[in-house]
Protein backbone atom coordinates (compact mmCIF):
# COMPACT_ATOMS: atom_id res chain seq x y z
CA UNK A 1 0.00 0.00 0.00
CA UNK A 2 2.93 2.36 0.63
CA UNK A 3 3.86 2.73 -3.07
CA UNK A 4 0.30 3.83 -3.87
CA UNK A 5 0.33 6.36 -1.05
CA UNK A 6 3.72 7.62 -2.17
CA UNK A 7 2.47 8.18 -5.72
CA UNK A 8 -0.61 10.02 -4.42
CA UNK A 9 1.39 12.24 -2.08
CA UNK A 10 1.86 15.22 -4.47
CA UNK A 11 -1.87 15.23 -5.22
CA UNK A 12 -2.87 14.95 -1.56
CA UNK A 13 -0.53 17.85 -0.81
CA UNK A 14 -2.09 19.83 -3.66
CA UNK A 15 -5.59 19.20 -2.30
CA UNK A 16 -4.42 20.22 1.19
CA UNK A 17 -2.83 23.41 -0.23
CA UNK A 18 -5.92 24.34 -2.25
CA UNK A 19 -8.38 23.83 0.61
CA UNK A 20 -6.25 25.69 3.17
CA UNK A 21 -5.59 28.52 0.71
CA UNK A 22 -9.28 28.92 -0.10
CA UNK A 23 -10.27 28.91 3.57
CA UNK A 24 -7.63 31.52 4.37
CA UNK A 25 -8.66 33.70 1.40
CA UNK A 26 -12.32 33.50 2.46
CA UNK A 27 -11.35 34.71 5.94
CA UNK A 28 -9.59 37.71 4.37
CA UNK A 29 -12.52 38.44 2.03
CA UNK A 30 -14.93 38.33 4.96
CA UNK A 31 -12.86 40.85 6.88
CA UNK A 32 -12.22 43.17 3.92
CA UNK A 33 -15.58 43.12 2.16
CA UNK A 34 -18.07 42.02 4.83
CA UNK A 35 -19.04 38.93 2.81
CA UNK A 36 -19.48 35.40 4.17
CA UNK A 37 -20.55 36.72 7.55
CA UNK A 38 -18.10 39.61 7.63
CA UNK A 39 -15.54 40.39 10.28
CA UNK A 40 -16.19 39.56 13.94
CA UNK A 41 -18.82 42.30 14.27
CA UNK A 42 -20.49 41.30 11.01
CA UNK A 43 -19.13 44.20 8.94
CA UNK A 44 -15.83 44.92 7.29
CA UNK A 45 -12.61 46.30 8.68
CA UNK A 46 -12.02 49.97 7.79
CA UNK A 47 -9.28 50.39 5.17
CA UNK A 48 -5.83 51.04 6.56
CA UNK A 49 -6.66 49.98 10.12
CA UNK A 50 -3.60 48.50 11.83
CA UNK A 51 -3.17 45.57 12.07
CA UNK A 52 -6.54 44.09 11.09
CA UNK A 53 -6.87 45.48 7.59
CA UNK A 54 -3.30 44.56 6.65
CA UNK A 55 -3.78 41.07 8.07
CA UNK A 56 -6.95 40.69 6.00
CA UNK A 57 -5.09 41.72 2.84
CA UNK A 58 -2.39 39.13 3.60
CA UNK A 59 -5.12 36.54 4.18
CA UNK A 60 -6.90 37.29 0.91
CA UNK A 61 -3.84 37.59 -1.31
CA UNK A 62 -1.74 34.96 0.47
CA UNK A 63 -4.62 32.49 0.54
CA UNK A 64 -5.35 32.99 -3.14
CA UNK A 65 -1.69 32.57 -4.10
CA UNK A 66 -1.35 29.43 -1.98
CA UNK A 67 -4.57 27.98 -3.43
CA UNK A 68 -3.33 28.62 -6.97
CA UNK A 69 0.13 27.35 -6.17
CA UNK A 70 1.70 30.60 -7.38
CA UNK A 71 4.68 31.78 -5.35
CA UNK A 72 3.55 29.21 -2.82
CA UNK A 73 6.57 29.13 -0.53
CA UNK A 74 6.86 32.92 -0.22
CA UNK A 75 3.09 33.41 0.17
CA UNK A 76 3.00 30.66 2.80
CA UNK A 77 5.94 32.21 4.67
CA UNK A 78 4.29 35.64 4.82
CA UNK A 79 0.96 34.07 5.80
CA UNK A 80 2.61 32.01 8.52
CA UNK A 81 4.35 35.07 9.92
CA UNK A 82 1.10 36.99 9.86
CA UNK A 83 -0.63 34.31 11.89
CA UNK A 84 2.28 34.09 14.36
CA UNK A 85 2.04 37.87 14.83
CA UNK A 86 -1.73 37.62 15.31
CA UNK A 87 -1.35 34.88 17.88
CA UNK A 88 1.30 36.60 19.97
CA UNK A 89 -0.14 40.13 19.81
CA UNK A 90 -3.88 39.45 19.94
CA UNK A 91 -4.39 36.12 21.69
CA UNK A 92 -1.39 35.34 23.89
CA UNK A 93 -2.09 38.20 26.31
CA UNK A 94 -5.49 36.69 27.24
CA UNK A 95 -4.29 33.24 28.35
CA UNK A 96 -1.41 30.82 27.95
CA UNK A 97 -2.94 28.12 25.77
CA UNK A 98 -4.67 28.57 22.38
CA UNK A 99 -7.76 26.75 23.64
CA UNK A 100 -8.11 29.32 26.42
CA UNK A 101 -7.27 32.48 24.45
CA UNK A 102 -9.21 31.84 21.22
CA UNK A 103 -6.03 31.63 19.18
CA UNK A 104 -6.43 28.11 17.82
CA UNK A 105 -7.11 29.22 14.23
CA UNK A 106 -4.09 31.54 14.27
CA UNK A 107 -1.82 28.85 15.71
CA UNK A 108 -3.02 26.18 13.29
CA UNK A 109 -2.76 28.43 10.22
CA UNK A 110 0.72 29.49 11.33
CA UNK A 111 1.96 25.90 11.46
CA UNK A 112 0.08 24.80 8.33
CA UNK A 113 1.63 27.56 6.26
CA UNK A 114 5.06 26.92 7.74
CA UNK A 115 4.69 23.28 6.67
CA UNK A 116 3.89 24.42 3.11
CA UNK A 117 7.05 26.53 3.09
CA UNK A 118 9.07 23.33 3.53
CA UNK A 119 6.97 20.88 1.49
CA UNK A 120 6.25 23.13 -1.46
CA UNK A 121 3.00 23.22 -3.40
CA UNK A 122 2.69 19.60 -4.51
CA UNK A 123 1.07 18.82 -7.85
CA UNK A 124 -1.28 21.02 -9.85
CA UNK A 125 0.48 24.28 -8.93
CA UNK A 126 0.94 27.24 -11.23
CA UNK A 127 4.52 27.48 -9.96
CA UNK A 128 5.30 24.59 -12.31
CA UNK A 129 4.41 26.68 -15.36
CA UNK A 130 7.11 29.23 -14.55
CA UNK A 131 9.87 26.95 -13.30
CA UNK A 132 12.19 25.85 -16.10
CA UNK A 133 13.18 22.20 -16.04
CA UNK A 134 16.49 20.89 -17.26
CA UNK A 135 16.11 18.57 -20.25
CA UNK A 136 16.05 14.92 -19.26
CA UNK A 137 15.47 15.72 -15.59
CA UNK A 138 12.97 13.47 -13.87
CA UNK A 139 10.28 14.94 -11.70
CA UNK A 140 11.06 13.79 -8.16
CA UNK A 141 7.38 13.42 -7.36
CA UNK A 142 7.04 10.77 -10.06
CA UNK A 143 10.43 9.07 -9.78
CA UNK A 144 10.21 5.35 -9.13
CA UNK A 145 10.88 4.29 -5.56
CA UNK A 146 14.33 2.98 -4.91
CA UNK A 147 14.97 0.38 -2.30
CA UNK A 148 16.41 1.75 0.90
CA UNK A 149 19.44 0.08 2.52
CA UNK A 150 17.67 0.51 5.85
CA UNK A 151 14.90 -2.01 6.49
CA UNK A 152 11.58 -0.42 7.40
Write the SSE topology.
Layout: H1 2-33, H2 52-68, H3 72-91, H4 98-101, H5 104-119, H6 127-130
Secondary structure tally: strands: 0
Residue-averaged pLDDT? 86
SSE order: HHHHHH
Q: Which regions contain 5 or more consecutive residues with pLDDT less than 50?
A: 141-152
Rounded to an integer in angstroms, the radius of gyration calculated over CA atoms is 18 Å
Q: Based on helices, strands and strand pairing, what is the structural class?
A: mainly alpha
Major sheet summary line? none
Helix content: 55-70%
Whole-Å distance between the termini? 14 Å
Overall morphology: globular
Classify the beta-strand content into a percent band.
under 5%
Summed up, the helix count is: 6
Explain what the structure shows.
The chain is mainly α and 152 residues long. Helices cover 61% and strands 0% of the residues. It is built from 6 helices and no strands. It is globular. The relative contact order is 0.15. The model is unreliable at 141-152 (pLDDT under 50).
Structure summary:
This protein is mainly α and 152 residues long. It contains six helices and no strands.
List keywords for this structure.
single chain, 152 residues, mainly alpha, 6 helices, 0% strand, globular, disordered C terminus
